[in-house]
Backbone:
């Protein structure tokens, strides 16, 4: 055979060779030169990167390329098999268009296939053209599946951080081995922090999503997607039912196009959850815009009938925010919808297994200001609660008690300062905090409701520890070296703008504003090395092995 013909023959026939990766490796030995191997690999990259054991992900295929065509064939076959499995076990249909398919957002040559076909199974796979879609598998891990140890996971992160590979290659490498291990939500949280762009973070989350064993703690990593449009993109790619915040829907915002089956299903799930827990109080800031653009005033609130998928409107846009007081949660119902619509393993799960969490972008800014004040002066949120409630308190705090208590603490965080452009008084700012902590609207904040600050405290603490861990990976244990890298103009202090620019320049993409807010104890808009040294107490205690 001609040396020129060998790479072309391998490229065309390799998808037909049985034996999996081992056979592919042996076939690769037939290349005469490294240049032939790399050139052929570039043409076959979608086929080589396909992980049939964890197919969840995004695909963009050139059907004129025989290896890309083989990828499309395999995924369409898996789709039909998984759809049959769903039917066998009587699973709820959570597909994009209500047709049972696991493909989403199917586009051929720039045209949405759902406008011409009820199901992808009706479409004859073309032999040319660009075929793009998302695939979401029905595979779910057992809650008891063995996960990677923290030390091994840390080792992987160190290698990921230190390697000089392109980000695309890092993601491809993780995809290729993703079926070999399971992870926890804490692992997923740390992983997404190593990727800069929204697309990269979404890609890595989607690849690893079906490998997470404690999905009841999903909010730990969901809070790292701070921009709402990032959440919408994940809902679109993973599915509105699959990405539904089953166990911790508190503060979830949603905007749903009721003309689309799975978004209509999501709206029905939210309304039904509110009916089970506290209706209509748990649905906040709701609105419904009809398909013709007119706004429904909804004088009687969200219709209770919308809890039934069969009676919810099939057009228009529904928006709302879900909030629920701890005492109103119906945990068993949340488990049931996670089992029925998410296919997740929740057997034996109790509310004590859940790491209740709140993201830093969820509450009003003044709630965070109050928490910053508490963190700098107390060991936990229970201490200020007892001080405000009084020595012989009744376990509930009224607005008057909160106002008086903060005055007694000599808290000036909410004093009206010169040049204040908000027009809000100190009392109004503290009242907004009170309203947030009293989602049930009873007029008092219980100890359980006050515990929402504890959830925020955990997020504060973990965000800072993650940042310090990154610094030790990058610069070693001496934080002075990290400070020298951040303070590149050697001015001895950093403004918030300089800080945010500096942390991105060293490769950190986590919530840096929170770290700055904690370090700026003087509230003068800048931090010095003396303030930066506070991070010493957040250094990781365990060694990476």
Residues:
């Amino acid at each position: 055979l001609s040396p020129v013909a060998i790479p072309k023959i391998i490229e065309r026939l390799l998808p037909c060779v049985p034996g999996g990766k081992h056979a592919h490796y042996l076939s690769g030995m037939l290349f005469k030169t490294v240049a032939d191997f790399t050139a052929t690999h570039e043409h076959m990259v979608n086929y080589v990167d396909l992980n049939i054991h964890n197919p969840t992900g995004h695909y963009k295929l050139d059907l004129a390329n025989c290896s890309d065509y083989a990828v499309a064939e395999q995924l369409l076959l898996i789709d039909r098999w998984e759809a049959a499995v769903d039917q066998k076990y009587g699973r709820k249909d959570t597909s994009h268009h209500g047709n049972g398919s696991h493909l989403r957002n199917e586009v051929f040559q720039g045209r949405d296939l759902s406008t011409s076909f009820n199901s992808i199974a009706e479409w004859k796979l073309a032999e040319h053209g660009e075929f793009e879609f998302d695939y979401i598998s029905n595979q779910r891990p057992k809650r008891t599946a063995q996960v990677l140890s923290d030390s091994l996971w840390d080792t992987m992160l160190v290698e990921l951080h230190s390697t000089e590979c392109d980000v695309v290659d890092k993601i491809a490498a993780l995809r290729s081995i993703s079926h070999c291990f399971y992870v926890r939500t804490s692992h997923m949280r740390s992983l997404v922090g190593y990727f800069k762009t929204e697309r990269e973070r979404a890609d890595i989350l989607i690849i690893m999503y079906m490998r997470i064993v404690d999905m009841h703690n999903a909010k730990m990593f969901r809070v790292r997607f701070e921009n709402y449009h990032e959440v919408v993109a994940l809902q679109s790619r993973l599915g509105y039912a699959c990405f539904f915040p089953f166990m911790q829907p508190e503060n979830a915002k949603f905007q749903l196009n009721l003309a689309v089956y799975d978004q209509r299903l999501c709206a029905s799930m939210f309304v039904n959850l509110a009916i089970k827990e506290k209706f209509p109080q748990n649905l906040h800031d709701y609105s419904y815009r009809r398909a013709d653009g007119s706004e429904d005033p909804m004088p009687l609130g969200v219709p209770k009938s919308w809890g039934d998928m069969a009676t919810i409107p099939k057009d228009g846009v529904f928006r709302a925010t879900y909030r629920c007081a701890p005492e109103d949660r119906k945990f068993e119902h949340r488990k049931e919808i996670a089992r029925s619509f998410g296919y997740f393993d929740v057997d034996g799960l109790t509310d004590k297994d859940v790491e209740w969490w709140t993201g830093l972008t969820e509450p009003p800014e003044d709630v965070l200001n109050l928490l910053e004040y508490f963190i700098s002066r107390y060991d936990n949120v229970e201490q200020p609660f007892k001080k405000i409630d009084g020595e012989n308190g009744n376990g509930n705090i009224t607005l008057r008690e909160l106002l008086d208590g903060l005055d007694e603490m000599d808290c000036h965080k909410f004093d009206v300062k010169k040049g204040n452009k908000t027009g809000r008084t100190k009392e109004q700012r503290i009242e907004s905090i009170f309203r947030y902590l009293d989602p049930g609207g009873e007029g008092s904040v219980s100890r359980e409701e006050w515990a929402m600050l504890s959830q925020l405290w955990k997020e504060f603490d973990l965000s800072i520890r993650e940042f310090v861990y990154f610094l030790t990976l990058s610069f070693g244990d001496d934080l002075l070296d990290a400070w020298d890298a951040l303070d590149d103009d050697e001015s001895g202090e950093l403004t918030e703008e300089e800080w945010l620019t500096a942390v991105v320049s060293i490769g950190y993409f986590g919530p840096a504003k929170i770290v700055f807010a904690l370090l700026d104890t003087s509230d003068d808009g800048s931090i010095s090395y003396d303030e930066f040294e506070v991070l010493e107490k957040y250094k990781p205690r365990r060694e990476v092995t």
Residues 327 and 448 are 7 Å apart (CA to CA). The chain has a mean pLDDT of 90. The first strand starts at residue 57 and ends at 62.
